[in-house]
Write a structure and sequence with these properties.
With 324 residues, the protein is α+β, with helices and mostly antiparallel strands. The protein contains 12 helices and 8 strands. The N terminus is likely disordered.
Protein backbone atom coordinates (compact mmCIF):
# COMPACT_ATOMS: atom_id res chain seq x y z
CA UNK A 1 0.00 0.00 0.00
CA UNK A 2 1.49 3.35 -0.98
CA UNK A 3 2.38 5.78 1.80
CA UNK A 4 0.36 8.90 2.49
CA UNK A 5 3.20 11.09 1.19
CA UNK A 6 3.27 9.10 -2.06
CA UNK A 7 -0.48 9.53 -2.49
CA UNK A 8 -0.10 13.27 -1.92
CA UNK A 9 2.61 13.52 -4.56
CA UNK A 10 0.60 11.46 -7.04
CA UNK A 11 -2.47 13.56 -6.37
CA UNK A 12 -0.56 16.74 -7.04
CA UNK A 13 1.05 15.40 -10.18
CA UNK A 14 -2.33 14.23 -11.46
CA UNK A 15 -3.71 17.76 -11.42
CA UNK A 16 -4.20 19.19 -14.91
CA UNK A 17 -1.53 21.69 -15.89
CA UNK A 18 -4.19 24.35 -16.25
CA UNK A 19 -5.16 23.93 -12.60
CA UNK A 20 -1.54 24.09 -11.43
CA UNK A 21 -1.17 27.30 -13.42
CA UNK A 22 -4.31 28.79 -11.89
CA UNK A 23 -2.99 28.05 -8.41
CA UNK A 24 0.29 29.78 -9.29
CA UNK A 25 -1.50 32.85 -10.61
CA UNK A 26 -3.65 33.10 -7.49
CA UNK A 27 -0.67 33.26 -5.14
CA UNK A 28 0.17 36.73 -3.83
CA UNK A 29 3.17 38.12 -5.79
CA UNK A 30 4.49 39.48 -2.46
CA UNK A 31 4.42 36.02 -0.84
CA UNK A 32 7.92 34.81 -1.66
CA UNK A 33 7.87 31.91 0.78
CA UNK A 34 4.71 30.34 -0.65
CA UNK A 35 5.97 30.72 -4.21
CA UNK A 36 9.25 28.97 -3.33
CA UNK A 37 7.38 26.15 -1.58
CA UNK A 38 5.05 25.76 -4.55
CA UNK A 39 7.99 25.80 -6.97
CA UNK A 40 9.70 23.01 -5.02
CA UNK A 41 6.53 20.94 -4.66
CA UNK A 42 7.00 19.07 -7.95
CA UNK A 43 8.93 19.24 -11.25
CA UNK A 44 5.68 20.00 -13.09
CA UNK A 45 5.09 23.06 -10.97
CA UNK A 46 8.72 24.16 -11.33
CA UNK A 47 8.32 23.89 -15.09
CA UNK A 48 5.51 26.45 -14.98
CA UNK A 49 7.89 28.99 -13.48
CA UNK A 50 10.89 28.01 -15.61
CA UNK A 51 9.03 28.06 -18.94
CA UNK A 52 8.39 31.82 -18.89
CA UNK A 53 10.18 34.00 -21.46
CA UNK A 54 12.33 35.44 -18.67
CA UNK A 55 11.87 33.13 -15.67
CA UNK A 56 14.31 35.04 -13.48
CA UNK A 57 12.27 38.24 -13.84
CA UNK A 58 9.54 36.71 -11.69
CA UNK A 59 11.96 35.91 -8.86
CA UNK A 60 13.63 39.29 -9.14
CA UNK A 61 10.29 41.04 -8.61
CA UNK A 62 9.30 38.65 -5.81
CA UNK A 63 12.56 39.39 -3.98
CA UNK A 64 12.09 43.13 -4.50
CA UNK A 65 8.52 42.94 -3.17
CA UNK A 66 9.87 41.26 -0.02
CA UNK A 67 12.71 43.72 0.50
CA UNK A 68 15.38 41.15 -0.34
CA UNK A 69 18.49 42.27 -2.18
CA UNK A 70 21.79 40.74 -3.20
CA UNK A 71 25.36 40.99 -1.98
CA UNK A 72 25.62 38.11 0.49
CA UNK A 73 28.10 36.26 -1.75
CA UNK A 74 30.82 37.45 -4.09
CA UNK A 75 28.84 36.31 -7.13
CA UNK A 76 25.94 38.50 -6.06
CA UNK A 77 28.21 41.53 -6.09
CA UNK A 78 29.13 41.13 -9.78
CA UNK A 79 27.10 44.14 -10.83
CA UNK A 80 26.11 45.23 -14.28
CA UNK A 81 27.17 48.68 -15.45
CA UNK A 82 23.55 49.58 -16.19
CA UNK A 83 22.21 50.55 -12.77
CA UNK A 84 18.62 50.20 -13.97
CA UNK A 85 19.15 46.47 -14.11
CA UNK A 86 21.55 45.95 -11.24
CA UNK A 87 23.11 42.53 -10.81
CA UNK A 88 22.03 41.39 -14.26
CA UNK A 89 24.26 38.32 -14.09
CA UNK A 90 22.88 37.04 -10.78
CA UNK A 91 20.27 34.30 -10.53
CA UNK A 92 17.38 35.74 -8.55
CA UNK A 93 15.79 32.33 -8.48
CA UNK A 94 18.82 31.00 -6.64
CA UNK A 95 18.70 33.92 -4.21
CA UNK A 96 14.99 33.32 -3.56
CA UNK A 97 15.36 29.57 -3.11
CA UNK A 98 18.47 29.85 -0.94
CA UNK A 99 16.89 32.49 1.30
CA UNK A 100 13.65 30.59 1.86
CA UNK A 101 15.04 27.04 2.09
CA UNK A 102 17.66 28.07 4.66
CA UNK A 103 15.79 30.79 6.51
CA UNK A 104 12.15 31.01 5.48
CA UNK A 105 10.91 28.92 8.40
CA UNK A 106 13.21 30.34 11.08
CA UNK A 107 11.39 30.68 14.42
CA UNK A 108 13.42 33.64 15.66
CA UNK A 109 10.97 36.53 16.23
CA UNK A 110 13.05 38.83 14.03
CA UNK A 111 13.54 36.38 11.17
CA UNK A 112 11.68 33.85 9.04
CA UNK A 113 8.08 34.69 8.16
CA UNK A 114 8.00 37.50 10.73
CA UNK A 115 10.84 39.22 8.88
CA UNK A 116 9.24 38.62 5.49
CA UNK A 117 5.94 40.06 6.70
CA UNK A 118 7.69 43.18 8.03
CA UNK A 119 9.63 43.61 4.78
CA UNK A 120 6.49 43.09 2.68
CA UNK A 121 4.54 45.73 4.56
CA UNK A 122 7.37 48.23 4.21
CA UNK A 123 7.57 47.60 0.46
CA UNK A 124 3.77 47.76 0.06
CA UNK A 125 3.80 51.17 1.75
CA UNK A 126 6.38 52.33 -0.80
CA UNK A 127 4.75 50.77 -3.87
CA UNK A 128 3.35 54.10 -5.09
CA UNK A 129 6.51 56.03 -4.28
CA UNK A 130 9.33 54.11 -5.95
CA UNK A 131 9.94 52.22 -9.18
CA UNK A 132 10.80 48.50 -8.89
CA UNK A 133 14.53 47.73 -9.10
CA UNK A 134 15.34 51.44 -8.91
CA UNK A 135 16.87 52.33 -5.53
CA UNK A 136 15.76 55.70 -4.22
CA UNK A 137 18.10 58.40 -5.46
CA UNK A 138 17.70 62.05 -4.56
CA UNK A 139 18.32 63.18 -8.12
CA UNK A 140 15.64 60.88 -9.56
CA UNK A 141 12.68 61.94 -7.45
CA UNK A 142 11.08 65.37 -7.28
CA UNK A 143 9.88 65.08 -3.69
CA UNK A 144 12.20 63.76 -1.01
CA UNK A 145 10.74 61.08 1.20
CA UNK A 146 11.57 60.15 4.77
CA UNK A 147 14.10 57.35 5.11
CA UNK A 148 14.04 54.86 7.96
CA UNK A 149 16.41 52.05 8.89
CA UNK A 150 15.52 48.37 9.06
CA UNK A 151 14.42 47.32 12.54
CA UNK A 152 16.88 44.41 12.44
CA UNK A 153 19.74 46.70 13.45
CA UNK A 154 18.34 46.80 16.96
CA UNK A 155 18.53 43.02 17.22
CA UNK A 156 22.03 42.32 15.91
CA UNK A 157 25.19 41.95 17.96
CA UNK A 158 28.85 41.13 17.33
CA UNK A 159 30.94 38.58 19.19
CA UNK A 160 32.22 39.99 22.46
CA UNK A 161 35.78 38.76 21.95
CA UNK A 162 37.77 38.64 18.75
CA UNK A 163 39.31 35.31 17.64
CA UNK A 164 42.84 34.72 18.89
CA UNK A 165 43.94 33.30 15.56
CA UNK A 166 43.01 34.24 12.03
CA UNK A 167 42.25 30.58 11.33
CA UNK A 168 39.27 30.82 13.69
CA UNK A 169 37.57 33.02 11.13
CA UNK A 170 36.66 36.67 11.36
CA UNK A 171 34.19 37.03 8.48
CA UNK A 172 31.25 39.31 9.11
CA UNK A 173 28.84 36.44 8.40
CA UNK A 174 30.15 34.54 11.44
CA UNK A 175 30.78 37.51 13.70
CA UNK A 176 27.49 39.43 13.49
CA UNK A 177 24.54 37.47 14.82
CA UNK A 178 20.92 37.85 15.83
CA UNK A 179 20.37 38.47 19.52
CA UNK A 180 18.99 35.33 21.13
CA UNK A 181 15.35 35.69 22.07
CA UNK A 182 15.18 36.80 25.70
CA UNK A 183 18.94 37.45 25.96
CA UNK A 184 20.09 40.58 27.82
CA UNK A 185 20.62 43.61 25.62
CA UNK A 186 23.85 44.62 27.33
CA UNK A 187 26.67 42.16 27.90
CA UNK A 188 30.01 42.66 29.55
CA UNK A 189 32.83 42.59 27.03
CA UNK A 190 35.92 40.47 27.39
CA UNK A 191 38.67 43.01 28.19
CA UNK A 192 41.47 40.53 27.53
CA UNK A 193 40.37 39.90 23.93
CA UNK A 194 40.24 36.16 24.44
CA UNK A 195 37.86 34.12 22.36
CA UNK A 196 34.46 33.66 23.91
CA UNK A 197 32.64 30.33 23.86
CA UNK A 198 30.36 30.07 20.84
CA UNK A 199 27.13 30.89 22.62
CA UNK A 200 25.34 31.99 19.44
CA UNK A 201 24.82 28.67 17.61
CA UNK A 202 22.45 29.03 14.72
CA UNK A 203 22.23 32.83 15.10
CA UNK A 204 25.05 34.04 12.83
CA UNK A 205 23.98 36.03 9.77
CA UNK A 206 25.77 33.50 7.58
CA UNK A 207 22.95 31.14 8.56
CA UNK A 208 20.22 33.76 8.13
CA UNK A 209 20.29 34.94 4.51
CA UNK A 210 16.89 36.64 4.79
CA UNK A 211 18.23 38.91 7.52
CA UNK A 212 21.58 39.53 5.81
CA UNK A 213 19.99 40.30 2.41
CA UNK A 214 17.19 42.56 3.70
CA UNK A 215 17.28 46.15 2.47
CA UNK A 216 19.02 48.32 5.07
CA UNK A 217 16.60 51.22 4.61
CA UNK A 218 13.06 52.03 3.60
CA UNK A 219 13.01 53.19 0.86
CA UNK A 220 15.89 51.08 -0.48
CA UNK A 221 18.86 53.26 -1.38
CA UNK A 222 22.17 52.63 -3.11
CA UNK A 223 24.15 55.46 -1.51
CA UNK A 224 24.41 56.54 2.11
CA UNK A 225 26.81 58.50 4.27
CA UNK A 226 27.34 56.77 7.61
CA UNK A 227 28.34 59.21 10.35
CA UNK A 228 31.31 58.43 12.64
CA UNK A 229 30.94 55.71 15.25
CA UNK A 230 32.62 56.45 18.59
CA UNK A 231 34.06 59.57 16.98
CA UNK A 232 35.75 57.53 14.24
CA UNK A 233 34.99 57.70 10.53
CA UNK A 234 34.54 54.31 8.93
CA UNK A 235 36.07 53.31 5.58
CA UNK A 236 35.78 55.74 2.66
CA UNK A 237 34.76 58.51 5.08
CA UNK A 238 31.55 56.68 5.81
CA UNK A 239 30.35 56.56 2.21
CA UNK A 240 28.62 53.41 1.01
CA UNK A 241 28.06 53.74 -2.72
CA UNK A 242 26.78 50.74 -4.67
CA UNK A 243 24.95 49.95 -7.89
CA UNK A 244 22.31 48.00 -5.98
CA UNK A 245 20.27 48.61 -2.82
CA UNK A 246 22.32 48.71 0.37
CA UNK A 247 21.50 45.63 2.45
CA UNK A 248 21.83 45.04 6.18
CA UNK A 249 25.08 43.14 5.67
CA UNK A 250 26.68 46.11 3.83
CA UNK A 251 26.25 48.42 6.83
CA UNK A 252 27.53 45.79 9.25
CA UNK A 253 30.55 45.17 7.01
CA UNK A 254 31.49 48.84 7.27
CA UNK A 255 31.49 48.53 11.07
CA UNK A 256 33.08 45.08 11.17
CA UNK A 257 36.37 46.27 9.68
CA UNK A 258 36.89 48.57 12.67
CA UNK A 259 35.56 46.46 15.54
CA UNK A 260 38.97 45.69 17.03
CA UNK A 261 40.40 49.16 16.56
CA UNK A 262 41.59 50.69 19.83
CA UNK A 263 39.72 53.80 20.90
CA UNK A 264 41.76 56.69 22.25
CA UNK A 265 40.97 58.41 25.53
CA UNK A 266 39.22 61.35 23.87
CA UNK A 267 36.92 59.04 21.90
CA UNK A 268 36.03 57.05 25.01
CA UNK A 269 35.40 60.19 27.08
CA UNK A 270 33.23 61.74 24.38
CA UNK A 271 31.12 58.60 24.19
CA UNK A 272 30.84 58.29 27.96
CA UNK A 273 29.43 61.81 28.19
CA UNK A 274 26.41 60.61 26.21
CA UNK A 275 26.30 56.95 27.23
CA UNK A 276 27.75 56.86 30.72
CA UNK A 277 24.65 54.99 31.84
CA UNK A 278 25.80 51.97 29.81
CA UNK A 279 28.67 51.33 32.21
CA UNK A 280 27.69 49.77 35.58
CA UNK A 281 27.81 52.44 38.28
CA UNK A 282 29.89 50.21 40.57
CA UNK A 283 32.75 49.99 38.08
CA UNK A 284 35.82 52.09 38.91
CA UNK A 285 36.97 54.37 36.11
CA UNK A 286 40.03 52.22 35.46
CA UNK A 287 37.86 49.16 34.87
CA UNK A 288 35.51 51.06 32.59
CA UNK A 289 38.38 52.29 30.44
CA UNK A 290 39.95 48.83 30.38
CA UNK A 291 36.74 47.23 29.10
CA UNK A 292 35.80 50.02 26.72
CA UNK A 293 39.00 50.15 24.72
CA UNK A 294 37.72 48.87 21.35
CA UNK A 295 34.60 49.36 19.28
CA UNK A 296 33.78 45.68 19.77
CA UNK A 297 33.83 45.89 23.54
CA UNK A 298 31.93 49.18 23.55
CA UNK A 299 29.20 47.70 21.35
CA UNK A 300 28.74 44.87 23.81
CA UNK A 301 27.69 47.31 26.54
CA UNK A 302 26.24 50.00 24.25
CA UNK A 303 24.67 47.94 21.44
CA UNK A 304 23.19 49.30 18.23
CA UNK A 305 19.59 50.42 18.64
CA UNK A 306 18.72 51.53 15.12
CA UNK A 307 19.99 52.89 11.84
CA UNK A 308 18.83 56.48 12.15
CA UNK A 309 18.12 58.89 9.31
CA UNK A 310 19.81 62.21 10.10
CA UNK A 311 19.44 64.55 7.16
CA UNK A 312 19.72 65.09 3.44
CA UNK A 313 22.95 66.91 2.71
CA UNK A 314 22.94 67.99 -0.91
CA UNK A 315 22.56 64.72 -2.80
CA UNK A 316 23.57 62.55 0.14
CA UNK A 317 21.38 60.60 2.54
CA UNK A 318 23.06 60.87 5.92
CA UNK A 319 22.46 58.14 8.52
CA UNK A 320 23.96 57.12 11.84
CA UNK A 321 24.02 54.05 14.05
CA UNK A 322 22.12 55.09 17.16
CA UNK A 323 23.28 53.23 20.27
CA UNK A 324 21.20 52.09 23.23
Amino acid sequence: MPSLSTLRIRSKLDFPTELLLIIKELLDPFDLRTHVCYYLSSPRVAALYDSADDPDAFWKLACWNCGIGAGLTQDEDDIDENRWHYLAGVSWKNIALDSIVRDGFCKHPCCGEALLEYNRECMRDLADEIVPFRPYNLSDYKDHMAISGHRLFGNIEFKRGRPLYASEGTSIEYDAHLRAHGAPVRRIANPDYKSQPDDYPGLYLGEHPLAARSFATWAPVSKILLLPLFGHWLDNNGRIKLSRPVIVLDVLKAVHKHLDRHLDVDEICEHMELHGYCIPAEWPHAEAFRVARTMRSMLSVCPIQRLEFEEIDGHRIVVSLDLK
